[in-house]
Write a structure and sequence with these properties.
Number of strands of chain A: 23
Radius of gyration of chain A: 51 Å
CATH architecture of the largest domain in chain A: Beta Barrel
Strand content of chain A: 35-45%
Number of helices of chain B: 2
CATH topology of chain B: Beta-lactamase Inhibitory Protein, Chain:B, domain 1
CATH class of the largest domain in chain A: Mainly Beta
Number of domains of chain A: 2
Structural class of chain A: alpha+beta
Radius of gyration of chain B: 18 Å
Distance between the termini of chain A: 122 Å
Helix content of chain B: 40-55%
Oligomer: heterodimer
Strand content of chain B: 25-35%
CATH superfamily of the largest domain in chain A: Porin
């Protein structure tokens, strides 16, 4: 029933469709046969097919032209439009994503751009953050006369009397100065230096039947001279103190380096107190700086205060006490530069012998090595562009012992040596824990106008122990030389250095020595140390300094 | 007579002012080197008459004679000029 109704309805529709098409396109239908759409029906099911098949009957033939192409086009257009809209939305979404990505990339580029200047700045600033310098002292020296004496420069030694015409090439200093400036006002300095290793080490036993040879053979080795942190802004809020500096570590102390700078010929010889045994460097903390006043900010005072180990930079500390040093320089008329004009300086140093607190002294010196050490210097100095002159008066307690006197060349105490009693006398006069020292020094230089040459000189008169009536070790020392400033980095000096134990020759009784150290000579009786005054020393030095 | 005296006084005053200005200017001329590298100084003034390394500061004292004037420069550990003075 349903299928018949459906067939009737379908026929009606197709008929109407054909009639409509024919009435709309009469000419074309008559003149050129249009392609037909054939429809087939399965009568048993009522299904319509576009292809023939078993059990199917031709239902109708419909001209293709009769179909509604506009509807199809509209349908296609609609679908296309939907697709286009979808594509457009997708494109817009991609565009938005791309824009977001571009923004992200731009931000990343900005970040990279911000990072790049930082490392570039670091590289650019590197040379401002670091400085490496070098300072080398070298010499050739020849002695027309040799003697027992202190070192003229660090790391040089000389054979004693009867070794005339001894000569040597030396390197007495080879600083590598490493400076690091991490921030404004802060400086870290590390300075290794050479030293001459002297001595015969004991060969170590290795196992039962082996030994290694000691290599303590006089090589030039490196050791740490200075290593400190310097901050120079601490008191800048007090205007007159601008230029102050606080340093901690292995530092150049407040006096010796300053006096070397004042004289200006450290590469030729040690300054007086340095020559007498005070090291230029200790481990400790110190503050230094100028005091400047007035509109022109002239320097009226230059000061230095420090607390250090009793040991020097090259020895280890044994004491439970510490050493104090102070230096104050006054420039009554004001100094336009560091040493300018007339100045007066007072230096004070108080410390103790470098021995452990539980040191148990034995006869005959007992606790003498533990005794206090005091050094003072009172100076008057004048310096201008062309010349400089320094007067210095030194005095001290226990500040000059036999190790200082013989630091450059010492008498042998080996069995059979002719100097055993001489050496014992020296320890009795100088190492007794109650010695007092006194000395006068004059130093100066004059720059010869319109030349690179400067004449210089030094004179020292020193009494190692004023308690001794006539001390055979009283000496005078004098140096005269000429300097050639080859260029900014290099200078040379030709000079003569002389040491004279100036007393006439005499004998010293052993009992007199025992009055300083009882029991030093076991059976003094009337025995004497004959010819107690050492011979003189005369030498010629050719010095060189390289500084960069 | 009083005019002559006034002229002399004026002349002396001008001389003092002139000298003061000149001194001030020369001081400024030296101070312009502060903060500069010592190598720049050497390029302009040549070799120093004396150069003394400063052990304690790590700097250097440089004595220059240039165009009839004398200068004393002190450098710091970084090799930059820390103080500059014209001495005449």
């Amino acid at each position: 029933m349903n299928s018949s109704i459906f067939r009737i309805a379908l026929r009606g529709i197709l008929t109407a469709l054909v009639l409509t098409t024919v009435s709309r396109f009469p000419a074309h239908a008559q003149t050129s046969p249009a392609p037909l759409l054939k429809l087939y029906v399965d009568p048993s099911t009522g299904q319509v097919f576009t292809r023939p098949g078993a059990g199917r009957a031709l239902l109708a033939e419909v001209p293709v032209s009769a179909l509604d192409t506009g509807a199809i086009e509209r349908n296609i257009e609609r679908k296309t439009q939907v697709q286009l809209d979808a594509n457009q939305r997708q494109i817009q979404q991609l565009v938005r994503q791309n824009a977001t990505l571009e923004q992200s990339n731009a931000a990343l580029q900005r970040q990279v751009a911000e990072i790049e200047p930082a490392w570039r700045s670091y590289v650019n600033e590197f040379e401002k953050k670091f400085r490496v310098g070098a300072l080398v002292y070298a010499d050739w020296r020849m002695y027309t006369h040799t003697t027992f004496q202190p070192q003229e420069l660090e790391s040089i030694n000389t054979p004693g009397p009867q070794n005339n015409l001894y000569n040597s090439f030396d390197i007495t200093r080879a600083y590598l100065n490493f400076y690091f400036f991490p921030s404004e006002g802060l400086t870290a300095r590390v300075t290794p230096d050479v030293y001459r290793a002297i001595g015969n080490g004991t060969n170590p036993a290795i196992g039962h039947g082996t030994t290694f040879a000691s290599n303590l053979d006089g090589s030039l080795n490196l050791r740490l001279k200075y290593a400190y942190i310097d901050y120079n802004k601490l008191f800048d809020f007090i205007r007159p103190m601008k230029g102050n500096s606080i340093q901690a570590g292995a530092v150049p102390n407040v006096f010796i380096p300053w006096s070397e700078d004042l004289f200006g010929f450290r590469y030729v010889t040690l300054g007086p107190w340095n020559y007498y045994g005070l090291s230029s460097g200790q481990l400790g903390i110190q503050v230094t700086g100028p005091l400047k006043f007035g509109e022109k900010q002239l320097q009226y005072i230059d000061y230095g205060l420090g607390v250090y180990n009793n040991a020097s930079y090259r020895t280890y500390e044994q004491t439970n006490t510490k050493q104090f040093m102070s230096r104050i320089s006054v420039y009554p008329f004001g100094a336009k530069w560091r040493f300018d004009g007339l100045g007066f300086t007072w230096f004070y140093d108080y410390g103790y012998g470098n021995v452990a607190p539980d040191y148990q002294g034995t006869a005959p010196f007992f606790q003498a090595p533990q005794a206090h050490i005091m050094r003072q210097a009172i100076m008057a100095h004048y310096t201008n562009y062309r010349w400089g002159l320094i007067f210095e008066y030194d005095f001290g307690h226990n500040a000059f012992n036999s190790s200082n006197l013989f630091s450059g060349s010492a008498p042998s105490t080996a069995a059979g040596s002719p100097y055993i009693n001489f050496n014992t006398m020296a320890t009795g006069f100088l190492n007794n824990g109650r010695s007092t020292q006194q000395g006068f020094d004059v130093m100066g230089h004059y720059h010869i106008p319109h030349t690179p040459f400067t004449a210089f000189g030094l004179f020292q008169w020193f009494e190692p122990n004023t308690q001794v009536n006539t001390n055979p070790f009283d000496f005078q020392r004098w140096i005269v030389g000429i300097q050639w400033q080859y260029n900014e980095y290099l200078r040379f000096a030709l000079d003569t250095q002389n040491l004279s134990y100036y007393h006439d020759q005499f004998n010293v009784s052993e009992s007199y020595v025992n009055s300083f150290v009882p029991g030093l000579f076991k059976a003094p009786g009337t025995k004497v140390i004959s010819n107690a005054v050492p011979v003189d020393d005369h030498s010629i030095f050719l010095n060189m300094e390289f500084n960069y | 007579m009083s005019q002559t005296r006034a002229a002399v006084v004026l002349g002396l005053a001008l001389s003092v002012v002139s000298a003061a200005c000149s001194s001030s200017e020369s001081r400024r001329a030296a101070e312009q080197w502060i903060g500069k590298d010592r190598a720049d100084l050497a390029r302009v003034m040549g070799e120093p008459k004396q150069a003394v390394p400063l052990t304690d500061t790590g700097g250097e004292m440089l004595f220059y004679s240039f165009q009839g004037h004398h200068y004393v420069f002190e450098t710091n550990a970084g090799g930059l000029i820390a103080s500059a003075v014209q001495t005449n």
